[in-house]
Amino acid sequence: MISTYAANVAIAIRTSLMDRTNFILNSAGMIVNDIFLLILWYMFFAGFRQVGGWGLHDVARLLGITLLVVAIGGVLFGGYRDMAATILRGEIDALLTQPKAVLPRLLARESIATAWGDLVMGVWMLLTFAALSWADIPVVLLAIACGTTVYVASAVAYASLAFWFAGARSFARDLTDFMLLFSSYPGSIYGGATRIIAYTLLPAGFVVLTPVTFLRAPSLSSLAILIGSAAAYSAIAGAVFQAGLVRYRRGLVPTG
Amino acid sequence: MPSMTPTARADVALGTFAAAASAFALGVRRNLANWPILMGRALFYLVALTVLSALWDKVAAQRVAGALVLPPGGLTLYVGATEWITLSVAAIHLRLEDDIRLGMLEPHLLRPKPYLVQKIAEAMGDSVVRLIGIGIAALIALALSGRALPPPAAFVYVAVLGVFGAAIGVLIYTGVGLAAFWVRRVLPPYIIVQKIWFLLGGLFAPISLYPAWFFGLAVVSPFAASIYMPGSMMIAPSVRAFGEALLAQLAWLAALTVLVALIWRAGLRRVLREGV
Amino acid sequence: MAIVTVENLRKTYRYVRRKPGLSGLFVRDVRSIEAVSGISFEIAQRERVAIIGPNGAGKSTTLKMLSGILEPSGGEARVLGLVPWKQRRQLAYRIGVVFGQRTQLWTELPARDSFALLRRIYDVERSVFDRRLGQLVDQFGLGGILDQPVQRLSLGQRMRCEIVASLLHGPALLFLDEPTIGLDITAKAAIRDFIREHAGAEGQTVVLTSHDTRDIELVCDRVIVISEGRIVVDQPTDQLRRQFLGHRLVTLRSAAPVVALDLPGVVRRNSEPHLSVFEVDTRTTRVDAVVEKALALGGIEDITIEDPPMEEVVRAIYDANGTR
């Protein structure tokens, strides 16, 4: 099953590389975008020094992880971004007549060009702001893998709203974008109700904060939370998608 | 076009206006038909605001030597206003991208009413509904939060400036959408423009907190007119500031309209030369 | 053994109508459309069946239910011994589906790449796949175009690639949803010939939906006409003609500009000078009587006897059922 997925993604990546100009515009554009984010935070810390004990370096580390999560998600599972539109156009009919599961096909359908820009910036930020040694690499990879799982799973759940509401196309994209935006805020600001939200509806907490916590102080409990959150969100996303697919196959989703 | 009599020209203008009005109504109806999404957007606004106000409350509560001083009452109301406007701007760039890239312009070009005016009117209808929906949510949240309220006049100022601010946003995104004539996919320009907007418009913090040289740069941009000026009514409302802001907004609306018309003309020439 | 059995299959779509205006926010008006209202039929192996009908008749809905995409509201169906909507994945290995209006190929890449991916999706062994692909490429004359990006191909070429894509895993049953829509005559002919010959050679069963009556004439041996969700006709193609239009056309080419035939049940159609077309009601008069009379007149250079075009047949069926 993985080899089929890999073959599918390989084609998607080749497709995204086909239009050279477009690819360069997209990845460069993303690098510029990420630099702006850094500028915003730089200005913030220049003005306010720190917030809840978090300084610029901490946020940069956070940003680095966030960007890598988005990068891996975008390159390998990029179909999540346009999934709502794909559903609403009835393009999953062809996938339903084929013998493999629909969701992986949908995720492997596209590889997002901008994600490569995020990859470059994410690696740069981590190298510059996080004191990493070669021994840390497996831990970093694990943290990123789990964060990516939560990110893609949430995006899938948001996109699956399209099975219920036609207007989900732009809304799902907004939700995903903002989940990202909040992933890059210092964890120290979350308390009480906000903390609950950051760890449930917009699981920014699990996308980035949990991995970062795990990186800072690896322990069995933080590992458990890391892997547990990834598993839980995957399960939720899978369930929502399947429920939506049942609706689709009952003919309750207006397409076209 | 051959020269028309004044009455003929008035007729054409009236016809265009009528068509735009019905496009506006279409935008309104379409948004209302998707009301679950509108509610979701309002909910989302509240969530975003919760996180941002957590940030600013934390900053306001701590006393860090050498840090900038926030206005009394913090920045929550300011961010409430800027987010309200930002989230209300309809995604016209996506619709334009679709129409242009997929060659769907042709049927529109064959119709007697100007395509772009229709599209903008529709997006404004969409935006107005969002402004109202999210605005109601904002007011309810504000009432429930127990925070100190600014004087009632401030709300009036914000409401008026907010509508024009959203209109500026629609025009800016129209320009971004029209980039599809040249770059096929508008995502890169969109992301960049959006971030510049956040930065120069002061989405997360008023630009008055920026270093003086940067403030000077930002305040003359359309982005500041779009969100900073309405937002600042929540910090320091005054008739004079309102008047100045309104003038700035109207000036920008005029300038952006001309700019967008020029881009459209250029794009259209390209299409007529090279095909859709 | 029947490949497809359908019993009393039904599909009702529900949609919500909102009242215009503010009350639309609170009042929901749920309407139902019965897209398919209880249809039953059987298809045997090697049959080539056309499902035709006016727009909105329920053809695509039926196809979707039989291919497992859509669940019915009632009734039963079995395709290759499996229940399509319950055993979708198992069935998928054994059917091929072509959507005329939508592509399953990656448009920016050559068709060859899409085929390679499909090989993995259907778990086809490489040697089997290569052999099959080679055969299909030869049969369909696709040699030069497999390496060009699909978006550069003409519609006809793209359609041929779509069909090949659906055959790579050697399905026993082929569903085609409007396969010739939008194609020019040559392209249509190529596809029709291919389907007929290939299906014949491989022993495949073919079910296609179409608006084009020539698809029926040239590809299929049986026609199911669906109108407003019900089957109104289910017959072999030639019987259809004879049943619904009990007439044949006799065309005479003559030296004289006009030929007059005065026989009961013989009606003259719009003709050109020297070419007279007569509609013969075979229930009243036999064709050989007409030919005899025509020859007796003398000066007849050529006689053609043919069945009325399928289009007329179909139109007659629609008219008979009050549909338009």
Question: Which labels suit this protein?
Answer:
heterotrimer, B: 276 residues, mainly alpha, elongated, C: alpha/beta, six-stranded mixed sheet, four-stranded antiparallel sheet, 10 helices, 33% helix, globular
Radius of gyration of chain A from the CA trace? 19 Å
For this entry, what is the oligomeric state of its chains?
heterotrimer
Shape of chain A: globular
Give the rounded overall mean pLDDT of chain B: 88
> What structural class do you assign from the helix and strand content of chain A?
mainly alpha
Percent strand of chain B equals under 5%
Radius of gyration of chain B, taken over Cα atoms and rounded to an integer in Å: 20 Å
Number of helices of chain A: 12
Spans where pLDDT lies below 50 across 5 or more residues of chain B: none
Please tally the helical runs of chain B, counting DSSP H or I stretches of 4 or more residues.
12
Number of strands of chain A: 0
Strand tally of chain B is: 0
Sheet of most strands of chain A? none
| Uncertain ranges of chain A | none
State the helicity of chain A in percent bands: over 70%
Averaged pLDDT of chain A: 87
Give structural notes.
The complex is a heterotrimer of chains A (256), B (276) and C (324). Chain A has helices at residues 2-18, 20-48, 56-76, 83-88, 92-96, 102-107, 114-129, 137-159, 168-183, 193-198, 204-216, 220-249. Chain A has 256 residues and is mostly helical. Chain A has one domain (2-249). Chain B has 276 residues and is an all-alpha fold. Chain B has one domain (23-274). Helix content of chain B is 78%, strand content 0%. In chain B, helix 6 (115-145) packs antiparallel against helix 7 (152-178) and helix 11 packs antiparallel against helix 12. The mean pLDDT of chain C is 85. Chains in contact: A-B, A-C, B-C. The B-C interface holds B 29, 32-33, 35 and C 18, 20, 24-25.
Short structural summary:
The complex is a heterotrimer of chains A (256), B (276) and C (324). Chain A is mainly alpha-helical and 256 residues long.
List the helices and strands and how they pair.
The complex is a heterotrimer of chains A (256), B (276) and C (324).
Chain A lengths: L1 H17 L1 H29 L7 H21 L6 H6 L3 H5 L5 H6 L6 H16 L7 H23 L8 H16 L9 H6 L5 H13 L3 H30 L7
Chain B lengths: L5 H28 L1 H27 L14 H13 L3 H10 L3 H5 L5 H31 L6 H27 L1 H4 L3 H15 L10 H8 L2 H11 L6 H36 L2
Helix pairs in contact in B: 1-6, 2-3, 2-6, 3-6, 3-7, 3-11, 4-7, 6-7, 7-11, 7-12, 9-11, 11-12
Chain C lengths: L1 E17 L9 E17 L3 E5 L6 H9 L6 E6 L8 H5 L2 E5 L11 H11 L4 H15 L14 H13 L5 E5 L7 H18 L2 E6 L2 H7 L2 E6 L2 E7 H8 L2 E8 L11 E3 L6 E7 L5 H11 L2 E7 L3 H11 L4
Parallel strand pairs in C: 3-7, 3-8, 5-6, 6-7
Antiparallel strand pairs in C: 1-2, 1-4, 8-9, 10-12, 10-13, 11-12
